[in-house]
Amino acid sequence: MKELICIVCPRGCHLHVDDENGYAVSGNSCPRGAAYGKTELINPTRTVTSTVRCENGLYPRCPVKTDRAVPKALLREAARALDGITVKAPIKLGQVILEDVCGSGASFIATRAMPAKAPA
Amino acid sequence: MVYDLLVIGGGPAGLAAACAAWESGLKHILLVERDRELGGILNQCIHNGFGLHHFHEELTGPEYAGRFIEQLSKTGVEVRTDTMVLALTPEREVHMMGAKTGYRVERAKSVILAMGCRERTRGAIGIPGTRPAGIFTAGAAQRYVNMEGFLPGRRVVILGSGDIGLIMARRMTLEGAKVLACVEVMPHPGGLNRNIVQCLNDYEIPLYLSHTVTDIRGRDRVEQVVVSKVDEHRNPIPGTEMVFDCDTLLLSVGLIPENELTRMAGIEMDRRTNGAVVYENLETSIPGVFTCGNVAHVHDLVDYVTAESEEAGRAAARYVLEGGAKGGPVLEVKTGENVSYTVPQHIRPQNVENRCNVFFRVREAGQESEILVESEGTPIARFARDHVAPGEMECIALPKVLLDKAAGSLTVSVRAKGGTAQ
C-alpha cells in the first residue's frame, strides 16, 4: 500500500494505492484521482510549463506548455530542450514551438498570443 | 459623459466583473489598467492548474487570462491600458493618468475596485542582516524569469512556503538554478499540498518547517543565508543555525490587498481582511462602489476570484439599472471560534435573492469539523467538513429563508464535530 497526495486539483486528496492488488485507489474524491493514483505508481507524468526566447515580441519570453503530460523522468530534459530555440513574434495561441519533445511525442505549444513589439 | 460603470484593474477580477456587468445590460463601461496589457498577475503565472472550477479544464495563467480578454473584446467595454488611477472620490469621480490620454477625471454611476494585491517584502517582516542585492519577492522573480527573460540567481533559498514560493522553487530549478531549501516558520506548509508534491518533492528540494531566516550575509550581493529552527512561539532557537551558501533569497511571505484608493475615498475598512467592509452584494460603505478579488480579501484560487467578481459585476448592473439597495435590517456577520475573518461582513436579507455566500478562513487546521452559524446565540445552520486549514478558504451558502428569520447578528464558528460551542 502506497500513500500519495493527489495533484490533479487544488483539493489535494490523500490517496491510498494498493500496488499489490491492481493499483486500487481509495481516499480519492473523483475518478481523476483514481487515474492519477494508478499512473503515478506505474508511469508518473507531468505537464511541463516553461518559456522560450522570443524576438520582436511585446515581451522577450513567450510562455509554453507540453500539449500532453510527459514522463516525470524527462522534466528537466524537456525544459532544457527549449534552450536553443528562438521564436519570432507575432505568435498565435496554441502555435507549435517544438515537436516531439525528447522523444515523448508531446509538443511544446504557446500558451498566449504574443503580439509583435509596437514600432518605436 | 458619465459611465454606467468604471472598473479599476484589468486582472482576473476586473475582467470578470466587466464582462458580467456588460452581460447584465450595462452599456457604458470603462476598464482602467496600469500595465500595458490586460490579464494582471496571470500573465506571469505560466504554470498550469487554473480554471478547473470555472472552465472544467486545466489551463495555464496566460490561457486563463486570454479567455477573458477574448470575451471582453467581444463586448463594447472601453479599455484604457497604461493608465494609472490616482484618486477615487466619494462622489465616484476617478482621477487617472494615462500614457496616451494624459490626466483625466471620469465620472461613473458605479465603480468596481479590482486592484488586486501586492507582496509583503523584507521590510514588512524585519529580517536581520546586511542589505545586499539578491533579495527578491517570489513574484518579482517570477516576472523576471517568465516575462522579462532574466534569471535572478544561481543558488537560491526561499523563505515562505506560499504557493508563489513553491512555484518559483520549481521554476528556478527548471531554468538551471539550484534551490537549496524552502523555509517555513509555521509547523505546516502555507501553500497547497499539490504544490509541495509537484514543486518540491518532484525536484528533491528540502522543506524546513518551523524554521526561519535569522541572518543575511554579503556586502554587494547575498553570500550566505542563516536559517534557524523556531520554538512554538516562533522564536529562533540558539544553536540550531544552518548556513546556506547562496546568491539569492526569494520571499513568499504573504500578500497585502492594494487598497490605497479605497482608503482615500474614505471607505470603511476591515483590519482582518485588509480589504473594504462589504455587504452581501460586495458593495462597500459608499453606495455604488463595489470591490472584488484579491483587493477585497486574498483568495487561494483564481476561479473563486472570477466567481466573486462576476457577482460584483451583476450587483453593479443592478445598482445602475434598478436603483440602490433596499432599506431594512442589516445583519452583522461576526467571527466566532477559530474563524479569522468573513466576507461579507454585513448582510441585508431583503437584498438577498436565494442565498448568500459567506467566505471565511479558519485560524487553526482541524479534521472532522463543523461550521456553526448562530444568530444571537441561536444556531441557525450547520455544515460539516472533513478537514479545514488556514490555507484553504471556506465558503458556506446561507439560504434567504434563514437570513430572513435571523436578527441582529450572525456568528460563524468552526469546531471539532461533536464538541460544544464556547
Descriptive terms for the model:
heterodimer; A: 120 residues; alpha+beta; CPE0013-like fold; three-stranded antiparallel sheet; 2 helices; elongated; B: 422 residues; alpha/beta; FAD/NAD(P)-binding domain; Immunoglobulin-like; 3 domains; seven-stranded mixed sheet; five-stranded parallel sheet; 9 helices; globular
Summarize the structure.
The complex is a heterodimer of chains A (120) and B (422). Chain A is of the alpha+beta class and 120 residues long. Chain A has 2 domains: 2-42, no CATH class; 49-110, CPE0013-like fold (Roll), CATH 3.10.530.10.
Q: Give the class-level CATH name of the largest domain in chain B.
A: Alpha Beta
- Largest sheet: spatial strand order of chain A: 8-5-6-10-9
CATH superfamily of the largest domain in chain A: CPE0013-like
| CATH homologous superfamily descriptor of the largest domain in chain B | FAD/NAD(P)-binding domain
Radius of gyration over C-alpha positions of chain A, nearest whole angstrom: 18 Å
User: What is the tally of helical segments of chain B?
Assistant: 9
- Biggest β-sheet description of chain A: 5 strands, mixed
Name of the top-level CATH class of the largest domain in chain A: Alpha Beta
Helical content of chain A, roughly? 10-25%
Unreliable residue stretches of chain B: none
Describe the structure.
The complex is a heterodimer of chains A (120) and B (422). With 120 residues, chain A is α+β, with helices and mostly antiparallel strands. Chain A has two domains: 2-42, no CATH class; 49-110, CPE0013-like (CPE0013-like fold). In chain A, 15% of the residues lie in helices and 32% in strands. Chain A is built from two helices and ten strands; from the N terminus they run E-E-E-H-E-E-E-E-H-E-E-E. Chain A has a five-stranded mixed sheet with strand order 8-5-6-10-9, with no helix packed on it. In chain A, a hairpin with an 8-residue loop joins strand 1 (2-5) and strand 2 (14-18). The longest helix of chain A is centred in the N-terminal third of the chain and has 12 residues, at 31-42. The mean pLDDT of chain A is 93. With 422 residues, chain B is an alpha/beta fold. Chain B has three domains: 2-118 and 256-325, FAD/NAD(P)-binding domain; 121-253, FAD/NAD(P)-binding domain; 347-416, Immunoglobulin-like (Sandwich), CATH 2.60.40. In chain B, 22% of the residues lie in helices and 36% in strands. Chain B is built from nine helices and 29 strands. In chain B, strands 1, 2, 5, 6, 7, 8 and 21 form a seven-stranded mixed sheet that branches. In chain B, strands 10-17-11-12-13 form a five-stranded parallel sheet. In chain B, strands 24-22-29-26-27 form a five-stranded mixed sheet, with no helix packed on it. In chain B, helix 1 runs parallel beside helix 8, helix 4 packs across helix 5 (163-174) and helix 5 packs parallel to helix 6 (193-200). The model of chain B has no long low-confidence stretch (mean pLDDT 95).
